[in-house]
Amino acid sequence: MTPERLRRTMIFLNTQRAALVKDAFVYQPDCVIFDLEDAVAQREKDAARIQLYHTLKDLDYQGIERWVRINALDSDLFQEDIRAAVAGGAEGIRLPKTETAEDVQMVADLVDQAEVAFNRPVGTTMVMAALESPLAILNAYEIATSSPRLMGIALSAGDYTRTMHAKRTVKGLELFGARSQLLLAARAAGVMAFDTVYTDTDDPQGFIDEVKMIRDLGFDGKSCISPKQIGITHDIFTPDPKEVLHAQHVIQAVQANEAKGVGVLTVDGKMVDIAWVEGAKRTLKLAKAAGSYRGDLV
Amino acid sequence: MQLKHKAIAGTLESSDAQIILAPNDGGLHIDLTSSVYEQYGTQIKQLLQQVCHRLNIENANIRVVDKGALDCTLKARLETAYFRAIDQKVDINWEALS
To answer: What whole-number distance in Å separates Cα of residue B7 and Cα of residue A76?
Structure first.
C-alpha cells in the first residue's frame, strides 16, 4: 500500500456500456471502478467481463488507478470476475457486501491463484472491502486487518440503510454510526477509508456539504457516480494555501523549538505542540500529492 | 471449437457494436455495416478476422453493426458472441484473448 497515493475520488463505471469505459480517464478521477456487479444486467455479465478484460489490456488510463467491483460472494460469478481482472492487470479488486474477514481471505486466495496463472507478480493486486450491512460494520476491524492485500474499506450506504431499516437523508445522520465505526477500524488497522456515493447528482450543495463532512471526519476519499462530482471532491480534499502555509509554520516552529526544550508554543495565533506535527505533515503530503506543495518538509 | 448455435452480443448504442454469429459449413463470411466504414471498414474486418483466427472460428456468418466502437469493444463483442455460441461461461483462457 502507498498511503501518499491520492484516492480522493473513485468513480463507478458500468462496464457493460462501451461508451462509458472507453475514455473515462478524461475526467481525471484518482481511481475508476469498473463495475461488474449491480450496474450490469444479469444476462450481460459475460459481456461486461470480456469488455473489462480488453479495456484493462488495451486502453491507457494515464496512471489512474483501475479497480474492479466483482460480483458478490453469494453469486456464481465472482471467481471468473477475479480471473478476468487479474489477467487484465487491474490494480485492485473491490469486494461488495463483505461481512467477515474470511470473505476477504477467500478473495485474496483466489487472487493469489490468478496472479500465478496469469504471470503477474504475486501480492501486487490490492483488495478493497465494501461494508454494506450491520454485521459488516460490527466486523470492520477484523475485515480491515484480514489480509496484507487490503488497501482500504469503504462504506456502501444503499444496502446498509436498507438492512438497518433506516432512511437515507440529506444530512446523513442515519450513517453516523457506520461512518464512525468504519473510520475507527480503518485508522486502527492502518488502511484507507472511503465514503459512500451521493446519489442525487442534481444537488451540488448537498454533495459539497457531505464531502466536507466526510473530509472533516477523516475519510480519505469518496465513491462517485458522476463526473460532476470529481472536481468538487478534489477541491475539497486538497488543502488550501492557508492550510499549507500553517502546516509549514507548525513543522518549522516545532523543529526550531525542539532543541531549546520548548514543547508548547504559539503558531499563527494558535497553541501547538508536538502532537500537531503529524497532522501538519499529513496536510503537506496531501498537498504534495495533489501538486500544490513542492517544498521539502515531507 | 464448433459453434453450437447462433449468438448475439453488443448493442446499437454509440461506441458499441452489435454482432450476430451463426454457424455455417462454408467458411467465414463477415457482413459489416459501420458508421465509420469509409475510414475504417478494412481495418475492422481485419481485426474481426484476427479474432476469428485466434478463436479457431473457420465456418461462420458474422453480421456486424458498428456504431463507432473501439477495437477493444469490437474484440469483446465478437468474443462474447463466440463464448455464447459454444455455451462457455467460465474458465476462459484470458491470455489467449489478447
So the answer is: 22
